[in-house]
Amino acid sequence: MDRNDFRERLNWNACVECGDCLVRCRYMSFTREEAKAEMGKVNRGEPSRALDGCMSCYACNAFCEKNAHPYERIHYAWNDRYEREGLPARASYLMPSRQPNFREDMSFTDEERELHRRWAADDPPARTVLYPGCNLLALPLLVPKAVMNVLPVWGRWDLCCGEMYFRMGILSKVREIAGRLTRFYRGKKIDEMVFVCPAGYNMFTNVLPQQFEARFSFRTTSFADWFMRKVAEGAFSPKRLSGDLVIQDSCHARVLGRDFMESQRRLLAELGLTVRETPRNREDGLCCGMAAGCNSYSAFDLLRHGMRNIRSLDRAEGGEIVQYCTGCYLTSGTMRLVNPFGKRLTHLLEWVGRALGEKRPRMLYRRAFSVLKGIALHALPKYFSRKRFRL
Ligand code: SF4
Ligand code: SF4
Q1: 3-state SS assignment for residue 128
Q2: Three-state SS at 391
Q3: Which residues are CB-contacts of 166 (< 8 A; sequence separation ≥ 6)?
Q4: What's the pLDDT band for 2 if we cut at 50, 70, 90?
Q5: If you take atom 8 of ligand 1, which residue's CA is the nearest one?
Q6: Is the CB of 230 under 6 A from ligand 1?
Q7: What is the 3-state secondary structure (H, E, C) of 246-265?
Q8: Which end of the chain is less congested by CB atoms within 10 angstroms, N or C?
Q9: Which neighbouring-strand residues pair with 388?
Q10: Residues 287, 292: Cα–Cα separation, whole Å
Q11: How much is the pTM?
């Protein structure tokens, strides 16, 4: 992979080594002078504390006023590490292309399997479709039936957007996925792809086309914008709900920007719900913990950062927690199993379903338990293994 390709595309030369990105990082503690020095090392391709301590939360891209993409510069250096050293054995269980992996170990009900089967058609069921992504495939009953009637879901596991590889800096896999998705969607009759998952939305809208030469002919829309548009057109008449919810923003939402984050809040407010904030929120909010495994592939890091996040949500004002990223929801579900004494976790789609008069079975804890069990059985025993592998 040619580093100069990215230098040009991602505006790396615009970096003035001001240090803003690392000074605002919530996971490492740098003085201004240290932050400047560490970014200088990152820019020169030298070893840096930033490369070791970064947990891939993506927020520094939102902090950089020069749009110089510090996030990619840090974690693309991880790609060099991967090319040199491969991955530790404990990372294998997290990789969708390895077996066993945590996705294949999930057991689904008959109703969920039937949804997977219906969603996996080769050709699109409508010109506007909902892309499920891996996270919604893991929790398919989150999609309200009334939504599916207007917005058919179309997608399957092998059309994964590659977000996990991107976050780990395994760029050859991301490039491979960009090519596969370009070939799959070429000539398919769709005008618009709607995304609940901010990760899938950002990958299809920005990362894959801008960095990995994917080409898609459809436009991309976030679910919140699509749903509010349909309400305005009269396709849905949601009833007013009441509730007092503390909101979690996702890592991708921070780089998608304020409009994206505000549209999630507007949708909840339009349903009659009161949205509360954590003391650190939006760009400065905490990661759910999922990204914490991306640097050291450590389940302990994931647990540590995931618990820190859920504690901050539990301490904030608001009766329940609402998350719009299904990955955050699943990750926080595993944290709630470890610490069950806190606020109830809810997903934005559950509130939409409720406003449309539906109540579907909650599969969160069952799925979260299978993720925890899989990690305990397949990743932890390899924790101290010296074996390495390449994808
Ligand atoms: S990446 Fe941006 S915020 Fe970070 S040092 Fe460079 S210019 Fe400053
Ligand atoms: S990605 Fe997050 S953890 Fe890593 S340097 Fe940027 S702000 Fe810090």
Answers
A1: strand
A2: coil
A3: 174, 203, 207
A4: low
A5: 18
A6: no
A7: EEECCHHHHHHCHHHHHHHH
A8: N
A9: 88
A10: 8
A11: 0.96
